[in-house]
Amino acid sequence: MKQYSTFIFDSYSFDPDTGEIRLVYSLDDDIQFTEIIEIPTEGIALNAVEQALFALHLAGGTSYFKTCCPKQVEVRSGVLNEDQVKFWNSVYENGLGEFFYKNKIDFRGLINFPVSEPGTPIFHQSDRASTGRVLVPIGGGKDSTVTIEKLRAEGKDITLLRMGGHPLIDDIVNVTGLPCITIKRKLPRKLFEMNEQGALNGHIPITAYLSCLAVVVAEVFGFDEIVMSNEKSASEGNVEYLGKQINHQWSKSDEFEKAFNAYIKKYINRNLQYFSKLRDMTELEIVGEFAKLPQYFACTTSCNTNWKVAGEHLEDRWCGTCPKCTFVFALMAAHIKRDAVENMFEKNIFEDESTIPLFRQLLGLEGFKPFECVGTVEETKEAFAMIKERGEFDDTPVMQMYLENV
After folding, report:
1. Within-domain flag for 283
2. Which of 239, 297, 331, 366 has CB 3.0 to 4.6 Å from 287, enough for a Cys bridge?
């Protein structure tokens, strides 16, 4: 694979008549990537959209920077002051931490966004009229349903936001009965071609990207709040590497949330609120709330195999063999009766002996917490203690393994 010296943020554009956003990047002005995003055009208000688009352009670059991790970064689409550079260096270094770990890349000193003089001024937007509208990104899982129902109980004016028209998310939208904005994203074919030719690949901070996209939507359509569904557990890392704690969920962490909220208020819109409704809750506590919402049992899935960018998607909602499926099954089994859990997953994961190594990782019996959106070892242990007390799964191989190691 050819090496390139400079990753370039070329340009971004937005056509309010068609709703098309174009994000353009290049490697040494040789290889160009153009990502296309399509948003609805009805109801466009156009507020502080330029700086929101600039932030989205910078966040979206992770997908293309990681192909070869050039040592230089050039930003042509805007200017950055020292404060912004510190933020984006952190997003790339922390958000790509798992990618660096798996590809054995020494990230120390690798990410260097350029400071421009005088740089972006702190943004002082005149107060715009409050709309009272709340934007809630959803991904098809249990967490966002809990957020939605908490906000509904508070009488909030809720609109959902999703990326792509997946039928699994259609079901949740229909159950909520709420309006939903659907965003389409087209990744450049060149990215997939480079991956096939041996370009570096791996996990990106997708929640950072989606958060920036939500800010664009909020500014284009006039929302007051963006309410995420990121839990307390997301702030815990997985493993230490080169002196840094690597966290698969870094862009879901409290650290990112606070930094991004501050960035929004300084450089985009001081009146736009960005926060997680579930920040003070553990995954286990969230499932306790989800257990009170049986209308969602048959239409949610936390299995990320459903959301692969390329390749086949699942016919079932749960693959039953990934870290996310195994972890969520344990949480559900701690709160919900066995027959209801088996109906939800259309299987009993505790009966599958092949999942025992994953459960041993989740319980902290070996290795480290899997690189997935799973909770802490302490949460998993607490869930298993609750399952043991219920006594409904004692006859399964997974519970036998747990009982032998209590």
Report:
1. no
2. 331
